[in-house]
Design goal:
The protein has 519 residues and is an alpha/beta fold. Helix content is 47%, strand content 16%. The chain is built from 22 helices and 16 strands. A hairpin with a 2-residue loop joins strand 12 and strand 13. The radius of gyration is 26 Å and the shape is globular. The relative contact order is 0.08.
């Protein structure tokens, strides 16, 4: 038995906080040798230093590290000074070790004046400088890889570690029915972990994904009785009629409340699968296996399900959180490039409304951002999922903050409707974000128009729309779900990461913004 990864680094690098988050992501246990020492000695580490001295503490530390390395199979964090021991460094030679690096100023800021850290209690800045100078070569000596924690949150550091370790990452979604979003190249294999007591599993898929759906069915055979149910591709499958056909199939197969529906495909299929599960017997479990970028970062996460009717998109649906969402990144390589790029609109949206790091990553290397299998794309997917998870955890039913996820969607949904859903959702939302950026500027808010156009264009998304269709678009926007009565509402930006719901945009401003986005 040995740890999955050992975290080393100076005080203030976040080993304990990051370690707990990483263990949660990887579904393993966490252990901190400082906690082990305090428990074994029956007193705090500062008290050990005061009463017995550093040499005694280091002896306890060497034993604690040896015990943990040989008796723990999760994430292990070591005290900042553990690496000064030759014995400990030799022990770490056969382990996977991550060095969490931090510069002196940031480390001092994080640890404050050194409370609870004996070696920093006097003149913490000078003491930290000396510790870093002495120990950095030792951290580098034992490390298999280094993660620079500067300007990163603990969650982001944990995400980076998960990627470096090669396993799937887990983003938890809270709320009234918590679930996990599993992200990785082999995430599909986790489907058997979420079948519960099901005897049957209905797998909804569209024709292009038959082979993938059949492999999933074969993988589950022996645990459940799989039922393959082909549905029309894309938005053609999101109708009440198709849902009714699925319900008839479930009835014929004798589906009960303990059975499970599985959605395999893009956002349209996962929307339909969720709606079918929500309606059957007033609600059965659904597991979402999105295979498109749009499905992974948007449609499959959040518990919204629905179908389209003639009056508009997603006007009939239900809130029905999934049992799990499994984002298998290896499927992104099978997508046509146009579909993969279209999914980037939702990722970029998350950057503008909540996580500017997304924008920085895309702008720094647009080619890597859209490249299947790249570390950049994996990070972007996880960041976007984390943004949505943060929002929907506190607002499942769109009663508050969740509305910010509709940035760019008011015009985007209108474009989809008047074009009879023949335009990709992401392309429509990209145009909608440019429109919203223009509205933000002309209503006295943030001026992010050029950055919006630039970042969308750099990944190949459209940034303009044909003229002469304003009346049709305005009519479609009147049915937007954010509206109340006759009041037209938009999500606009007061700045990056500062979305706001606005209900006083004038007709003249709507027309002016439209003229500015016309090709």
């Amino acid at each position: 038995m040995s740890p999955l990864v050992v975290l080393v680094g100076p005080p203030g690098s976040g080993k304990s906080t990051v370690g707990r988050l990483l263990a949660q992501r990887l579904n393993v246990s966490f252990r901190d040798t400082d906690d082990d020492i305090a428990e074994c000695a029956g007193q705090s580490i500062p008290d050990i230093f005061v009463e017995h001295g550093e040499e005694h503490f280091r002896a306890l530390e060497r034993r604690a590290v040896a015990d943990a390395v040989n008796g723990h199979d999760g994430v292990l964090a070591l005290g900042g000074g553990a690496v000064v021991s030759d014995e400990t460094r030799a022990l770490l030679a056969d382990q996977v070790v991550a060095f969490l690096s931090v510069e002196m100023a940031e480390a001092v800021s994080r640890v404050g004046i050194g409370a609870g850290r004996p070696l920093l209690s006097m003149n913490p800045r000078q003491a930290m400088r000396v510790l870093l100078e002495q120990r950095r070569p030792l951290y580098n000596e034992v490390a298999d890889f280094v993660v620079d924690t500067e300007r990163l949150t603990a969650e982001q550091v944990a995400a980076e570690l998960a990627r470096r370790l090669g396993g799937p990452s887990v983003v938890p979604v809270g709320g009234e029915a918590p679930y996990d979003v599993v992200i990785g190249d082999d995430a599909t294999m986790a489907v058997t972990d979420h079948l519960g007591g099901a005897h049957r599993a209905a797998i909804l898929y569209s024709a292009p994904l038959y082979e993938h759906a059949a492999r999933i069915a074969a993988y589950m055979t022996g645990q459940v009785e799989p039922l393959l149910m082909e549905v029309p591709d894309a938005e053609d499958g999101k109708t009440v009629e198709v849902a009714a056909q699925c319900w008839d199939g479930l009835a014929e197969a004798g589906f009960t409340r303990s059975d499970v529906v599985i959605g395999v495909g893009g956002g349209a299929v996962t929307d339909l699968a969720g709606f079918v599960a929500a309606g059957w017997l007033r609600g059965v479990a659904v597991i979402q296996l999105p295979t498109s970028l749009l499905g992974m970062v948007d449609a499959a996460v959040g518990g919204k399900t629905g179908v389209n009717i003639a009056a508009g998109k997603n006007l009939v649906g239900a809130f029905h959180p999934p049992r799990a969402v499994l984002c298998d990144l290896s499927t992104l390589g099978t997508l046509p490039q146009a579909d993969r790029i279209a999914g980037f609109a939702e990722i970029i949206k998350c950057g503008f409304i909540a996580d500017p790091g997304i924008l920085d990553l895309v702008e720094a290397d647009p080619a890597a951002a859209v490249e299947p299998g790249s570390a950049v794309l994996a990070e972007l997917v996880e960041r976007a999922v984390a943004v949505k998870a943060s929002v929907v955890s506190g607002d499942l039913r769109e009663s508050g903050r969740r509305v910010v996820l509709n940035y760019g969607h008011t015009l985007g949904h209108a474009i989809e409707k008047i074009e009879r859903y023949r335009r990709r959702h992401g392309e429509a939302v990209a145009i909608g974000m440019v429109y919203a950026a223009v509205l933000s500027r002309i209503t006295g808010r943030a001026d992010l128009v050029e950055r919006t156009r630039s970042i969308l264009a750099r990944v190949g998304l459209p940034v303009s729309y044909p003229s002469g269709r304003l009346d049709d678009l305005l009519a479609a926007m009147r049915l937007d779900k954010k509206n109340t009565g006759q009041t037209q509402r938009f999500v606009l930006l007061d700045g990056i990461g500062k979305p706001t719901l606005v209900d006083d945009v004038t007709g003249e401003q709507l027309a002016t913004a439209y003229e500015e986005i016309c090709a």
